[in-house]
Amino acid sequence: MRELKILAVVVFFTLVTYWGVEPFAHSQMHKHVESENFEYKDLPEVEKGDIAKGKDLVMSNCTACHSITAENMPAPMDPVTSGASYGVNPPDLSNMGSVLDPKYLAAFIADPAKASNVAHKFTPESGRTHPMPAYNWMPKEDIASIVSYLQSIAKPIDELTAKEVFVESCGRCHAARYDGKVLGQKWTQIGQKPRFKYEKDSLAFDIKLLDYEDSLKKYMGKLPPDLSIIIRARGEHFLKTFIEDPQTQLPGTAMPRVGLSEEGFEKVMQHLEDIGDPSKPARDALGINFLIYMAIFTLFAVLWKKSVWRKLH
Amino acid sequence: MAHFSDAKPFSEKWLDERLAVKTLKRVLSQEYWIPKDINFLWAMGMILAVTFGMLLISGIFLLMYYKPDVNLAFDSVNYTIMQEVGYGWLFRHIHGVAASVVFLIIYIHMFTGIYYGSYKKGRELIWISGMLLFVTFSAEAFSGYMLPWGQMSYWAGMVITNLFSLGSLELNGLVEWIRGDYVPGDAFLSRFFMLHVLLMPLIIIGVIVLHFGTLRIPHVNNQEGAEIDFDAEAEKYLSGNTKEAKIIRFQWDFLAKDFMVMAFFLFFFFYLVFYHFEFAMDPVNFDPADGLKTPPHIYPEWYFLWSYEILRPFSKNVGLMAFGFAQVIFLLLPFLDRSPNAKPAHKRGLFKVWFWVLLVDMIILSVMGKVPPEGIFTTIGFVAALTFIGLWIALPFITMAEKKV
Amino acid sequence: MSNTNRRDFLGMSFAAVAAVGGVAALAGMKKAWDPLPSVKAAGTTVVDTSAAETNVMYTEKWRGKPVFILKKSKDMVAKASNNEKARDVIVNGEHFLVCIGLCTHLGCIPAYRADTENFLCACHGAEYDQSAINTKAPAPLPMKIPPFKVDGAKIILGEAGDAYNKMKEAGVLGSTPLDPKA
Which of A11, B70, C20, C132 is deepest in the core (most CB within 10 A)? Predict the structure, then answer.
């Protein structure tokens, strides 16, 4: 009995210390941000539009900068030159219709800086404008048609791999060293780095990448961080609220609100888990077996101890 | 010259003639008498040995793949070991969680010693060697934390080495010498790698042997602090009266209970390794080290927080003196406690209050050491730091006034 | 069961359970020594033979070892023995020698002599013919042919294709002695 009391005291003080040093202290360091589950409450609804009209509009307004591989339309420039011209390589539009929320897509086309919450970067005083022009001169129905067209050519989100969604949503600004079969053949902002036989070719690729990153640094203010292990460095809740609206976690940041749909976000999270914490499934599975073994081990330890101490009590 | 018979090679007699194995067995297990009146807290020593063993073995496997170079260290841990090496993630999790949990057990073990007076009357060297183990384990933990070369590694390294400028003495040359560079860099990482992997483990093993050695003759303490006539009790035990004898054998009586407590511990430990490890593997250290960007919150590992907080509320020089005081004062416990009683705290009047106030005060210091130093937290931390110093100054007076029990 | 027997039995059982855990731990530790995925991924090398000149020895690297690539001339093929021809790797109609460039005596790298169309190992004087079959002691065996697969003008080292498997069945890879004149 006394031993149980002593155990209770030890457990109590351990838990108090744990609470104070972990949950309590962290709540003091980071205020809690509530997620809105990608509802984009601040954005208006989008009507259904005319797909054919949308296609015409896209072909005449967008393909000067954007590639659409789903329609065999290549990019007008290579990524490095695009980066030098616009600051960042404009995304391919094939899957924007399923990866992004339609309300966001419409709002973004109308006013990119406003919809992505980076208007604070492109004030008149700054002398800078968003690389993509605003289309708010277009009638609302036309923008709706563009959205409908983009939705029609997009692969359903279920058919996209987690990596594909990551590449479309994040990969033009963020590199991921760990995203590749081996270290070295990594995801870079200009594409997956292939295996080069000759050092010279590998260095040539690296120089192109550095040029792109220079343009990106100028455009963003600093180089967006490598996302290889961000899942463990920030955790799911932070990433969810951050991606939803970066300004809620890092006010004044240059990172745009991405406008992912909820399913798009789930895929991005899946990819971040795959590259940053791939041992999680094995860990969860082995853990159960380990604990079952430890329970059996403890049982035998207790039985043996009791039998040894029978003659001592 | 010793006498050597025709005993069969490697038989017990043959080994006894050459290595005195029979005497060793008698002294270290069969007739190593332990008091019977003990509780599960007496198993903390064994748990520490097992946890140290796990650190050593998991460390060996990490050592196979870790690269002590500022450009390679982070990825060698977070990619090669965590993602490529077979069970690398498991070795890393075991190592990180064990490094944190070992200090929980050290503190429980330490406070058990304080509570039951196991640092008095012949046991002073056990206490001192134990506190030396606390210091060496702290150095081992700090040097180990540098190795992943994450943001916390770098900035903890920066802050703690800056302490050596000794405030107004401004010994910047000394700080640079410790680092081998102006800032924590490659030289800093390599030397702490050497300390963590070779020098500190050797010293720790030596002090552990000393710790065991200083324990043997005074014998293990018991729950009531009772004086035991070990020879008389041994006779009772050996004649078969094991139920009434006040002592037990180390092997297998004491060890059986040790193993049982250890089993419960390991269950809890592995639960943490697999499912609840963030307290031991802080997210901030999963950002690669960046000398040009300080994280918004820097803090040491939880077991250093009380000590860190004693430094914080005071001005630079006073803080350093308080910090130095805190590091050494525990070593002086056997000599500051002036009472004649080697008894559990609940039998020692005011000392019982002293004990619980000290424990609660150190917990408060730990929590304050972690939260941002603002508003009411600074006040609480200041009061707690003063309380800590006050407690130790009061100890000789409290214990001098203690009546003999 | 008497107390002592029960105690001993439980002690033994406990030890057995602990041993099971110990063995599992050892198995995990063994896996930590296994070659890493990145090492296994680097296990193939692709050689492009389109620019290869005749009777010029090229050295490629495969799994850390040198591999000799030698395009044989029509004359060399004409005067080759059956064993020598059996070891030829045919790429787009051309005959190549593809072998691990290590002397089978003690592992030095032999030098190719274009004028005499054979190999000489500087370490102890061993010699090999145009198909790397040993012709002079102390070389005990022909230089070994690595797993290969022909893909158009490319040779993929590290993958066993049909031609390699045929050589394996014919026993000409170099693990057994061969008569250079047969």
Answer: C132
